[in-house]
């Protein structure tokens, strides 16, 4: 009897434990199912939010507000990036989403954390997509930054302005200038990178044609470097700035006068605003007026570039390291050229032109340089020849 009672007790205990196990198991399963359901709902919600965000890019005006370009231009650029093989759709995100996030950062100078919030992605995913797209865009450098060739045509902006720019500047292929963008460097490097802006910058050299497309970019020089030093490097490196045979660029007075870089007369009025009040009175003033009218293409190019991509125009300390800032500047230049070819923002260009015309005149005259050598003499001959021919025709037409 005792053995039977003991057996029953054991069976009862086993059944009780089994029932308790089943109850716990069912509760765990129920909880897991609830978690899975919540996760599924959260995933569906995240995907819905992303779909809603991407829908905005299918509306042309919304697309311009968000990423500063129209729908067709955005879709074509995504196609071009796919062609590089560096960007592909994956299980979790398409190329369009990756590019949209990258472009939004450039167009609004926002941190990756904000993109994480908008797109419901992890910070690691957002950062990874940014760098992947950045590398893919930079791979397009040779396709969109094309330097003038020896047998290249006369720019239409010169050829079609007969009597003003043609035939005098028919050998001119474009203009060059430097532009500073803020960088973040270690404290012991600040002095070397500090420019006249009083904070660390890169001094970047750009060359452009008169249709506002950039043809050459050299990014990364410390802000304290003089423009002429940056140009010297651009002319001597492997991927150097090319000067077509017998042609030249226009440059401001910060560069040396040579047969390849024609600068304005020093000690003479230069800025366009000055001549709107008092017309030119001699051949040097007329040359400076026409030189300024043509050379401001590079100022316009830089102005449009900075307005379209505030990430390279902000005075606040950047979020990225120095090397990334340099890569971002190059990427912005490549995208700028792409857009100037397929989707130029005429309203933005007009805004930049207006600002340039109303900008303050830094000085009434250009200081006199003491640097003279054989290259300077040859450049002076070219400049004087242009100036005398223009002045002769100017007086002939005025009489």
From TrEMBL:
Gene Ontology molecular function terms on file: hydrolase activity; metal ion binding; nuclease activity
Record keyword Nucleus present: yes
Entry's localization field: Nucleus
Keywords noted in UniProt: Hydrolase, Membrane, Metal-binding, Nuclease, Nucleus, Transmembrane, Transmembrane helix
Domain DDE Tnp4: 176-337
Pfam families with a match to the protein in the record: DDE_Tnp_4, DUF8040
InterPro entries, alphabetized: DUF8040 (IPR058353), HARBI1-like (IPR045249), HARBI1_dom (IPR027806)
DUF8040 domain boundaries: 60-138
GO CC terms: nucleus
Superkingdom per UniProt: Eukaryota
Requisite cofactors: a divalent metal cation
TM annotation in the entry: 6-26
Family designation: Belongs to the HARBI1 family.
Protein name, entry field: Nuclease HARBI1
